[in-house]
Each structure stands twice: as structure tokens, then as C-alpha cells.
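Researcher: Hi, I'm a grad student and pretty new to this. My advisor asked me to get structures for two proteins we've been looking at. I'm not sure of the right format, so I'll just paste the first sequence and hope you can take it from there.
Model: That works fine. Here's the first sequence with its C-alpha cells right after it:
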Amino acid sequence: MDVDDCYAKVVGKFGRYQIFIYAVLAIYGLALPSLTMMVMFINAKFSDIETLQVINSRVKNDSSIILEWDLEDKVWISDLIQSLYFAGFLFGVLIFGQISDKIGRKKTMILGYHILLPISITTAFSTNYIMFAVLRTITGLLVGGSSLVMFIYTQELVSRERWALTASGGSVQFSLGCLLLIVFTYFIPPWRKLYIAASIAQVVPLIFTWFVPESPRWLYSKGRLSEAEDVLVKIAKRNGVKDPVVSLAKKASYITDASYSIVDIFKYKSTMKRLLVMAYNWFACSFVAYSLTYASGDMGKNIYVNFFLSTVVELPTAIFTATILDKTWCGRKRGLTFCLCASGLFCFGLMAFKPGVKNALKLSIGLGGKMAISAAFSIIYIYSPELFPTIVRNVSLGSLSMIARVGGILAAFSKTSVETSPVAAYLTFGLTGVTSGLFTLMLRETLGTNPPDSFEDLEKEERKRKSVRMKTVKKRLDLFFRKKDTNTEEAELLVESQEEDEL
């Protein structure tokens, strides 16, 4: 048996022990969004503070880094600081992805999260904006790298049949984390106290990381079969399986001590095309999603309500997306194409409003775009791992996540760009969404197929798919020129077309 067979036949696809691990680690998914999105509240200008004080009497000048460090005429600095956060995020996913492939998922999570806690607490005691910017960059590096490894770890801890569920859960966690941020910012508006409160929430999952098992998939990929078997047996017992027996068979195409990099992905035409298309998609999702969030102040008058609504729409979106992705009429490819294009069209709709206009209709259109791009984000986290071979799945996800941070870096300036030229800003958001949706049509559907384990498996799959396509085209041409329309030949073409769709 391989690891997937063990999950399906012995251990449990997503048993109670796996759910317990997932739930405790999900606390990070609730705590870390505060560190990412806090900039929405702590970089308020003097006019913003006056508006907030009408809603929340607790808000004072100590709620803003701009007022504390006299940056009123240098707002671009706060945008730059958030860009530096995502720049750190970019390098984090790249560095930590490589580290986790070397030393394992568990050790990498322990390393990253143990450094993150003191760094994030220290940030609250920054004496000037330069110190704050440096610590924010380091925080971004640690959040990005550790979160990526945790995502991969939780995926590898369950059956592939449950990947859609666990991946979509990440979107739900992020949305709930942002909702908690609203509560924190309302009752603890001073930015230093707010930063400490958001940091302390990491303590429980931090301690828990010492007690989780190593990823059995990673152990298996490194040829450490006996250790992988021990972990699987432990999980099975915790799931309530009596006397579980696990015997892993060595699979040469899966098990390797070799280290792969992004260069290896470019050696094969099939993986190179997938990487380039998905890289643009990840960039688009990050850029449009964060841009619409930062620009929400341009759509409605109440920042708390705007941020709450732009966040809360993500919850049903993520749940609904996870529910329909396994339906043949939707699938990964069609779903992603539709959602990306829809997000772009909603952004085009925002161009119809005059600069400075803030009303319910404009906010509703903006929320529609946020729902669409949130659904795309949920799909892309499920779709991407299924497109790449197991041996480079971590590298590819790390690379894609790195590209997404470029979108986050540029999105940090979206609030200023919308205030300067809203038509140009929303046009840019819209074009990014629509073009990325159209590029998705170049990819293959993965619904109902097993992800390849090696480059060789992928090449065989592509050759078989190409062969079926050529046979189908040949028969169609033959029917056209011979002008035959027999039921038998039409049935054969239908079967072959279905086979091509399934590959």
C-alpha cells in the first residue's frame, strides 16, 4: 500500500485525531490574519481618527502609527511598510518550503512559530517607523513561511479525497480571524496593545506543535517507511481503529532523496505551462482580493462595517465553494475561470461611480467582487496541488505563494491609488481578474483524477491524453469527409471525448 491506501483502508480519511490536530492548528489560522490585516486600522490618518471616534469613543491618537510618528504628509511610508510585510512573506514561503523538504514539516513549523512569537511581541515596542518596518518584514517572512508549511502539513495528514475540505477550511479560518480583528480593534484600539493581544493568541498552538506527529507523506517520500508506518499506526489508534496493520510498499517514482527546485519544473513543458498559468492566477487572486479590501473605505462610510462586510462574505463563499467543487458541472477549472472573470467584471462595475461617491450600491458591487475573488482563492488552494507531481508539490506551492505575495506588495498601494485615480485603479483590478480567468482555460481539469507522483507519471498522462485527443480529431475529420453519421461511430467519439475530459 501507499500512504493514500493506508488513509482510505486503515487509518481513516479524516478521523477524529486528524480533526483534533487540524482544529488546534487552526488557531493560527484565526490569530495570524490579525497581523496581516491590522494595517487597515493602525495606519489611520487624522481625518480617519475623527471618523472612527464618532463610532468608537475608545479611539485616540495612540491608535495610529501615522499620528504617533508624524507621517500625516508621508502616507506612502505606511503603504511601503505593508509592502515590506508581503516582501518578507514572499521570501518566507520560498525559504521555508525548501527547509521543510529537508528537515520535515514538524521541525520547520516549530522553528518558524517559535521565532514568530517574540518577534511579533517586540514589534509592539517599536520606537520609530524604521524599527517597526524591519520587524514587520521579519514577521511577514515568518508568517508566510510557517503558514505555508502548516497548510502542506494539514493536507498531507489526510486523504486526498479530503483536500478540498481542509484547503477550503483555510479560507474560513482567515475570514474568522479578520472578524476577530474587528472585535480586537474595537475594544483595544491602541495599536501597541492590539499588537500584543494578537500575538498572545499564538501561545496555545505553539505549544501544541511539539506534540503533533511528523507528516507520514514526507517520511514516505524520504524512504523512511518504518517511521511513516509508526505515525500512521498512531493516527489510526487515536482514530479508534483496533489493532491497525500498516504496510507501506516502496514506490520508486515517489521515494527519493533528491532535492528539487523550481528549475526542475521548467525542464518539462507540461509543468512549465501549469506553473506559469497558475503563477499569474495566484498573483491575480492576491492582488484583487487585498486591493478590494484596502479600497473598501472608498465604497462605504463606516470602516468597521466595510471591513466586516468584506470579510463576512468570505465565510459562505468558502463553504459553498468547498461543497460544489466535486460536482462535474463545476469542477476546478470551470469554477476558477468563472470566479476570476466574475471578480474582474465586478471591478469594472465600480468604474461607473463618480470619484468620492460612497453608497450601498457601490459597496454591494465591491462585495460581489470580494465574494468572487474569495471563491477563486478557495479553489486555487485545492486546484494547485493536484496539478503538480508529488515530488515537486511543495516547491511549486512555495513558488506560487511567493508570486502571490507580489500581488500583496502591489495591493498595499491600492488605497492610495483609488484615492488618486479610482477609474484607473478599478480598471487595473478588473483586467487582472478577467485575463487570469481566461488563462485558466489553458489548464486541464483534475476532478476525479489522481495527482501524479513523479515527472514520469505526468509525462505518461500527457502522452495518453494527447493520443486520445488525436484519435478523436482524426475520427471527426474522417466522419466529416466521408459524410457518415452512424450511431456506432458517434458513440465511439462520445466515449473518447469523455475519456479526454477525465484525463
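Researcher: Oh nice, that was easy. Here's the second one.
Model: And its structure:
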Amino acid sequence: MNKLMGFFELNDLDLPTIPWKEYTGSEFLDKSILWTVRSAVYKGNDLNLPRKIGVSADEAMTFATKLLHTLAQNGIVIYYPYFLANKSGTLEVRNKKTIIEAVNADLWNLVSLSDRDVTIEIDDGVTSFHGDETFLSESEITKIVENVPKIRQSFRNQLIEGHSLLLEWSYAQRSNLQKMPIGNEYLVFYELRTI
């Protein structure tokens, strides 16, 4: 499953996800908030694709329009309201094991800088921690893990075949134009792929 399919699968899974929409070139984005623009290709390499994160509506629309022409018929451009990540990580769902990796703030701290505050492994009901056991509260762990049965049910065939699913998540807040947090914190999943 590539990034594009992952976006569609997330929508169908009944998980808390980003409210993404496809950009067609006729949209006018709300100027009172910041936006994220990403791309997804139908086939081929879908890693490190062009994106803009946390930009004004004007910059988002300009970038999205150019990206739309660059991709032509090879993919889609999506957009969604920007959010601030307080804690982020990955959730790997295997047939019988679940692994949560978490990092402070943005996921890029884990992916690009290899920072990691904690890894939590749940195997047959036994939970083990590697790193800061207090980084995620019991409630935060529970909110992430309560989504695992839905994921296992939807992808049981891939899991039986030995694949696992990797989801990206954040505990996030909405942002004002100055990138200051507003509103309550919420859990959001924003990428899904089969590995």
C-alpha cells in the first residue's frame, strides 16, 4: 500500500484522521488559518514528495496549483488545516504484536533526527518500555492502542501473510496564524502504509 492508498484507507477505518481533501485548483482556502499541502503519486517512489507545512492560504494555493501541474495525471494534491504536534510517533501493528514509538513534538524529530523518547512493545498482553516510561501517559497509550483492533480487522489478510501496518500519529492542537496552539489536544493519524 502506498501513501495515496493509505490516505483513502485511513478515511475508511473510522480512526481519528486529518480532514484532507483533494486540491483541484478551484478551491479558495480560509485565510484565517494555516494550511498543509501534500502530494501522493499513483505509482512509483512516494517517499519525500514535495509538500508545504504550516503556510498561509495564499502560499498553500500557489504551491498546490504548481504541484497540480507538475504531477499532471500521475497523482493528486491534498490539503488540510495545519496542526501543531505536541507528541508524535509511529504505530506498527503486526499480527500479534503492537509497537509504539514516540517523540516530543513533530514526527520529523523521530524520522529525520532519529530522536526517540520511548518505544512501547505490546506482545500477547505483556507491555515493555524502552526509554522514558513516563513520556506517554496511560491515557495517551490507551487512546492509541484502542484503535488497533479496527486496524487488525480491516487488514487481517495482510497481517496473516506476514505484513505489518505502519501508521503515523500525533497528539496535536489547532494552530493560529502565529503557530501558537489553540483549542484542546486531540489524537490524529495521518499516514498509513503496509510494510
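Researcher: Is there anything I should tell my advisor about the second?
Model: You could mention this: The first helix runs from residue 3 to 12.
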